[in-house]
Design brief:
alpha+beta, Nucleotidyltransferase, domain 5, GIY-YIG endonuclease, 5-stranded antiparallel β-sheet, 17 helices
Length: 455
């Protein structure tokens, strides 16, 4: 069964204020002929501009007493249940209808078929495949152009013609019309999207051997995966050619998804991931206070760090970060261990150091600027837990920080009472520590979306 659909809108894309459906026509086709029809104007609950009124001849006055989309939504669902959604340039009509349903909190999903693509395959070589030009060249009269029923009826006649051409062609006659238009990537897309929920978590793209080729995270894994298929990026298209399956882990909230994704990328090193693959940290920027109470920064090998502020995978990136702090905060080269102790730093000579190394700046003033860096990268408390929502309503999550480092995450029953930190810590699954996990936690805390418990 096929649902041949045409819509008229007051915008080029769905928005509540400027782009809604103003008319819809649904024709149910059984593969031989149209057997049912539903047509109605729709009150878009927004203003129809002169441009769209002139295009469709649908005015604001015409839709005042028309039903709103939510009042016909059930009818559309029932009529199109089990049908292939057919339209001329189906991406536009289907996505608009899907977005209208999404605004109601309903996930509308139908298999789609585009008569533009089908026409290109069965009637090649045409100058234009727009509905108006194609129908005119084929002798199909459109009664009511740019009105939902007129365009839908014309699309149905075109669809009938395309079915006849398919059945008369020895190359295609034994294939179903949907199968004819289905590419491998379309089958994979449908399979992947049917498996992924619209939930927060981490997803794993797999090749035909079951190897992980990409790891991603999102607050809505379905929508994020869909964006991969809609991407024009060259590397993304290459990944889709290798894609055969998907696996996923629901996390319940974005922070755990961020942390799990970062750890899993380091563990599996998927071919198509770019960021966070490095798992060997070579250098750190350490910090300490000297005998005079001056805050010092020092670039050291990672394993020698005693009070690491940040860690890096190369010396060059660590040096670049330290130099950026020197410039931004007017730090002294001597107190960044880039000039021998007791000597005046070169930056003081070119007036880029305020003279802490020459006794010309108060320690308090210098430390105030250095503290701005510490405040950005040091947790306010070294031992705490972040409590957030879990994977279901009766569950909460915990992300644990101990001694200033990310430890791991876990889940616990929100209805049960836990009286000691040890009980909560017992819910945590220990993770492999990588310094960049602290960056993720800090960024999350900066958003202010959490409940924090200090131990």
């Amino acid at each position: 069964m096929f649902a041949i659909i045409d819509i008229e809108t007051c915008g080029g894309k769905f928005t509540h204020k400027h782009g809604r459906i103003t008319e819809i026509c649904v024709l149910i086709h059984d593969g031989l002929t149209v057997i049912d029809k539903f047509t109605t104007l729709i009150n878009p609950e927004c203003h129809i501009s002169n441009f769209y009124s002139n295009l469709t001849n649908i005015t604001n006055e015409m839709v005042v007493d028309a039903p709103k989309f939510h009042e016909v939504a059930k009818k559309i669902i029932e009529m199109t249940e089990g049908c292939v959604f057919v339209a001329h340039n189906v991406g536009f009509d289907y996505n608009f209808v899907k977005d209208e349903f999404a605004s109601l909190g309903y996930k509308y999903k139908r298999e789609t078929l585009c008569t533009v693509r089908l026409s290109r395959k069965l009637i090649p070589g045409r100058i234009s495949y727009s509905l108006g030009h194609l129908c005119a060249s084929l002798g199909i009269e459109i009664i009511g152009r740019h009105r939902a029923e007129g365009d839908a009826v014309a699309t149905a006649e075109l669809f009938d013609l395309l079915l006849r051409l398919k059945n008369a062609d020895p190359q295609y006659k034994n294939k179903g019309v949907v199968e004819l238009m289905t590419r491998r990537i379309d089958n994979i897309k449908k399979y992947i999207l049917n498996k992924l929920p619209e939930e927060c978590g981490v997803y794993y793209f797999l090749n035909k051997e079951g190897g992980i080729i990409y790891i991603g995270k999102s607050v809505n894994m379905y929508n994020r995966a869909l964006s991969h298929f809609n991407s024009d990026e060259k590397k993304g298209k290459k990944m889709l050619n290798d894609l055969m399956n998907v696996d996923f882990v629901e996390t319940g909230n974005e922070l755990i998804a961020l942390l799990l994704e970062a750890e899993e990328i380091k563990k599996h090193k998927p071919l198509y991931n770019r960021a966070r693959k490095a798992d060997v940290f070579t250098h750190s920027i350490d910090w300490f206070k000297d005998k005079r109470g001056i805050i010092n920064f020092k670039l050291v090998p990672y394993e020698e760090a005693e009070n690491a502020l940040l860690s890096f995978t190369t010396y060059a990136t660590a040096r670049e970060r330290l130099e950026s702090w020197i410039e931004e905060k007017t730090l002294c080269l001597q107190y960044c261990s880039l000039t021998p102790d007791g000597s005046l730093c070169f930056n003081h000579q070119i007036k880029k150091c305020n003279g802490i190394c020459a006794g010309e700046e108060e320690i308090e003033d210098y430390n105030k600027r250095a503290h701005e860096i510490l405040n950005e990268f040091i947790f306010e408390n070294p031992d705490f837990a972040i409590i957030d929502k879990g994977r279901e309503p009766t569950e909460q999550s915990i992300v644990l920080i101990e001694k200033g480092q990310y430890v791991g995450f876990g889940y616990f029953n929100a209805d049960e009472q836990y009286t000691s930190p040890e009980e909560l810590k017992g819910m945590v699954k220990r993770a492999t520590y990588y310094p960049d996990a602290n960056d993720l936690v800090r960024s999350w805390l900066a958003k202010g979306r959490r409940r924090k418990i200090v131990f």
